[in-house]
Amino acid sequence: MGERSVKATLLGIAQDAGRPQAGCVRPCCADSHLDPSLVRHPVSLGVVGVDHSTHLFEATRALAWQFECWHDADPEEGPLDTLWITHAHLGHVDGIGLFGREAIAASGLPLHCSSVFAELLQRTPAWALMLEQGVLSPCPFESGVVISPTEQCGFTVTPLKVPHRAELSDMHAMQITGPRRTLLFLPDHDAWSETLESMGASDIRTWFQNLEVDIILIDGTFWSADELHHRDQGTVPHPPVRETIESLGPRQEGDPRMVFIHLNHTNPLHDEESPEAQMVEQMGWEIGFEGMTIEL
Ligand SMILES: [Zn+2]
Ligand SMILES: [Zn+2]
Ligand SMILES: [Zn+2]
């Protein structure tokens, strides 16, 4: 097998609950209940290294579909080499059990996660059993420390701790650097003020420049701050897309590509014909799609 490029594939663009969301009878999910092509899966990212090794970021319940999507976009055979988890919220972890004996029956799968998440694995009976059975092999990382997932994969991962409601575990964005490009995977965060403060940056553009990233897959959960009419949006804080693009303005020369992911079922960006989606694109920013590939 010869060398290949490092390639990332976006395997899900929905918020944790997916689209349609269970129990949603509102217009936002009506079409996706009827048309399987409009179903969207929880956020997930696959990366293949120059050594043909395969690395998955997030373990969602849509794993079967996502492996197919990944294989269609970037065909590689063989078992998964490493698994990475950003944080413990539902859609990012509810597929962990699929690596166990009832399904894939992995053995010694390296699971890169924070030490807080590694402790949660121990304290969660179903996951503790998987550790006991040798299915998963936790590899705790530290924020800011560069990791090479396999010796010859040709890319590195730097987890960056980001403020996000931490009832179960802390949250780490993943900075993934290949020979040609650097990608930041930031599916969830609470507020720009908190993220920028923790990163020591005065504004979003300065932070992007400090990171030296070429492309950012970023939290686009809600379009606006008043999107959840029936419940208190303050209990699930995410910076609304409108706030992010208004604060940045149109994409300027030298800006990275910014691609919105982690879209809630209520988000009008699910419909590419919506005025909101057109506004994002007219400003030079992007909305992620499942199967989208990025050479790193
Ligand atoms: Zn999430
Ligand atoms: Zn809905
Ligand atoms: Zn979350």
Describe what you observe in this structure:
- With 296 residues, this protein is of the alpha/beta class.
- The protein has a single domain, classed as 4-Layer Sandwich (Metallo-beta-lactamase, Chain A).
- 24% of the residues lie in helices and 21% in strands.
- The chain has helices spanning 27-34, 63-73, 90-93, 115-123, 125-132, 192-199, 204-211, 241-248, 275-282, and strands at 7-12, 44-48, 54-57, 82-84, 109-114, 136-141, 156-161, 172-177, 182-186, 215-219, 257-261, 286-287, 293-295.
- It has a 7-stranded mixed sheet. A 6-stranded mixed sheet has the order 7-8-9-10-11-12.
- It is globular, with a radius of gyration of 18 Å.
- 44% of the residues are buried.
- Bound molecules: zinc ion (3 copies).
- One zinc ion (ZN) binds next to helix 3.
- Residues 87, 89, 164, 188 line the site of one zinc ion (ZN).
CATH superfamily: Ribonuclease Z/Hydroxyacylglutathione hydrolase-like
Mean pLDDT: 96
User: Low-confidence runs (pLDDT<50, min 5 residues)?
Assistant: none
The secondary-structure class comes to: alpha/beta
Largest β sheet strand count, sense and barrel closure: 7 strands, mixed
- Under the CATH scheme, the architecture is 4-Layer Sandwich
Total tally of structural domains: 1
What is the tally of helical segments? Answer: 9
- Strand neighbour order, sheet with most strands: 6-5-4-3-2-1-13
Termini separation: 20 Å
User: How would you describe the shape?
Assistant: globular
- Nearest-angstrom radius of gyration? 18 Å
**How much β-strand is present in the residues?**
15-25%
Number of strands: 13
Helix content: 10-25%
* H-E string: EHEEHEHEHHEEEEHHEHEHEE
Bound molecules: zinc ion
CATH-defined topology? Metallo-beta-lactamase, Chain A
CATH class: Alpha Beta
